[in-house]
Amino acid sequence: MNQQQANKQELLQMDEAITHMDQQIQDDEKVIKQIETSNTWKTSKTYRRLKQMIANDENVERTQLESIIEELEIALYHAEDRIIELQLKDTELTKQAIYQQIRDLKKEGKLLSFLDTLIQDKKQHQQNYREALIYTARLYMQAEEEDQQLLYEKILTGLTIEEIPEFMIRAGLVEDAIPLHQASSFRGSLNMRMRKNQMQPGLPEWALDDKRQAYEFAQKLEIPTPDIDHEIYTIDTIPVKDGIVLKPAEGAGARGVYLIHATEDIFDVKNSSTLSTWSELIESMQRDLQTGAVEADAWIVEQLVYEDRTERQPARDIKFYSFYGKVGLILEIVRDPEIRQCWWTVSGERIGTGKYEESLFHGLGVNSEEIAMAEKVSSEVPVPFLRIDFLRGENGLVFGEFTPKPGNYDEFDQPTDQLLGDYFLDAEARLIDDLLQGKAFHAYKELVQQTDMMETK
Fold it and tell me: Exposure winner among 67, 128, 164, 457, fewest CB in 10 A?
């Protein structure tokens, strides 16, 4: 907000303050009545009755006392529920404090019974705040354009995309439109993408979730890939070899991924731990299946890519958040001896995104040629978003995998979520335009056709 806007807002606030002062006298007269009708006053009625009875008659019958005590216990029970509700509304609460309250409710056997109240309360408060913000905007519908734009921009910061009313969207379509950054959300766009996949299973990006097909597609585009064994193994049939990576045939992330430098030196990527025997590896894989970390007993074996072979230093991960030919964000990860992350912009600026704040480090970054390679791959897949993962080997980047749905994509902070949301919307628009212009996506279509032919055999 510039100085002129700040001054304008101050004038508007002063105007409101004058109106408020006129109303204050009338409001003060209502305070006593409000106290007399408050829940606190009503709740104390039982206590006042008990005190009066004891004062009037020291021989109060036991049944009367028991009845009063029962009333007090009921009042206390409801008061405890009310306290929990108020605590959750406390703006000073930290995330960990909220977690502790929820754990306590579960321990006391109250969580499930309180859940409906929690959900309804959240919905009601969201609705109340939404109505308040939108009504505030309506009060300025006839205001001067400069005042209106200032207020609308501020109000938009408090509304989610589905809460923005049409009349505010309309204000974003005029010549000097207010920016609708708040309408963009990477989280929202990916959530909708997942819903679309439920309605129309097999969206284009999911064809590349299969690691073998992903490697084949990368090779069609002349992107370096590790050597891969095309066999699908079970725990009982995995070959005992040195210098390989063992990973689930399906799935993304580090779950169930093992770097086998040698049979006595095996690195569990997900847990950042070292296994010293083959039997320990088998036991760990069985736990992966039992806990659901890995869905099926189906594994692939590929070449272990090193950043420094002599030191047995495995390649670091370079993950490009790619939006149909444009890279929006880059994540660099080292996993050995402990996992650490670093976020980069396309311009080479190291930034925070709200994710992995506790384990950030100063990485090495990427160069323009590597970004161009990721963007080339992204432009050949007819989807608005696809994370393209590489490994930094001794001779440069080597393709790793495609990730249609990155883990915990909801944890980005608001600026990053909106930035990536803008990339997503822009990619959708450019993709539709290219499809209308007849772009063929030959490499992708060829891969899909080959897959369909193999499945029909």
Answer: 457
